[in-house]
From TrEMBL:
<dbReference type="InterPro" id="IPR000847">
    <property type="entry name" value="LysR_HTH_N"/>
</dbReference>
<protein>
    <submittedName>
        <fullName>LysR family transcriptional regulator</fullName>
    </submittedName>
</protein>
<keyword id="KW-0805">Transcription regulation</keyword>
<dbReference type="InterPro" id="IPR036390">
    <property type="entry name" value="WH_DNA-bd_sf"/>
</dbReference>
<dbReference type="InterPro" id="IPR036388">
    <property type="entry name" value="WH-like_DNA-bd_sf"/>
</dbReference>
<dbReference type="GO" id="GO:0003700">
    <property type="term" value="F:DNA-binding transcription factor activity"/>
</dbReference>
<keyword id="KW-0238">DNA-binding</keyword>
<dbReference type="InterPro" id="IPR050950">
    <property type="entry name" value="HTH-type_LysR_regulators"/>
</dbReference>
<comment type="similarity">
    <text>Belongs to the LysR transcriptional regulatory family.</text>
</comment>
<dbReference type="InterPro" id="IPR005119">
    <property type="entry name" value="LysR_subst-bd"/>
</dbReference>
<dbReference type="Pfam" id="PF00126">
    <property type="entry name" value="HTH_1"/>
</dbReference>
<keyword id="KW-0804">Transcription</keyword>
<dbReference type="GO" id="GO:0005829">
    <property type="term" value="C:cytosol"/>
</dbReference>
<feature type="domain" description="HTH lysR-type">
    <location>
        <begin position="4"/>
        <end position="61"/>
    </location>
</feature>
<dbReference type="GO" id="GO:0003677">
    <property type="term" value="F:DNA binding"/>
</dbReference>
<dbReference type="Pfam" id="PF03466">
    <property type="entry name" value="LysR_substrate"/>
</dbReference>
Amino acid sequence: MTNLNLRHFEAFAAIAAAGNFTRAAQALHVSQPALTVQIRQLEETIGVRLLDRNTRSVKLTRIGQQLSPVIQRLLREIDSVILNARELATGDRGSVSVTGLPSVCSTILPRIIAEFRQQQPGITVSLRDAVAQVVLAQVKNEEVDFGIGSFADAEPAIQVVPLFNDQMRVVFPPGSPLGKRRSIQLKQLITEPMILMSQQSSVRILVDRAFQSMGHFPVPAYEATYMSTAIGMVKAGLGITFLPTSAFEASELGGLGSRILKEPGLTRRIVAIQKSGRTLSPAATAFLRALIAGCKALRPAPRIRHVDSE
């Protein structure tokens, strides 16, 4: 039994449309004998005659008439699949799944996605926000195309693309003596009551390591899972907190003061990460390029927005 392929169905559709073998062979750019063989193989495989032939024309049998629209629809769908595959391959269409730190997802990424959508309307971007360790896990488990985060330790299973550096700020209540200082050093904050992020967050890891490098192990007065909670506690006068500059965008500061902490250990390196050995789709590659370009164009923003823990 002959294994049927696309050419057998194209031969039948061409004859059904042309009404004779000569014109059908010309349309398909094959010889008439080759076309005859393809039709014979199709009929033998199906086990029924599809065409009634005479010296002048070819007509579809009753079964041929019933199969003709089915085969034509099949060929249209195959053409559509091929077209879609080509568009996916060129990056004109597709979907991208990204996970990232809340401070990046709520401030920087929306603008980049909006600009990318104007340039690539056929590509959909799905965005998740998560703390650094969850970002890392989702990338390792291939739940997303790539992630955006800050990771203190190297991961052999992960490829890293640098995006930008993110300095830490100390945020303090209105009326705090800290507001009278033009610059603040970390050692000047040791005696202040501290509202620190949860121990799983990249901000907390960075702050703890910076204090520990000075021989001090900070004991927080309060811990917060979400940055918005920490800000609320600072507003209530319960202490100071530490937030990344990338979170400083919207008008949620509400009279609180802040200063950049310039110690080298208090700068996060924000990177894009993907699983080693995993090739990004053309759509994901296009968005990653847009992300890199958008991060290069970043400018400092003056105010802070409520964002989640990270």
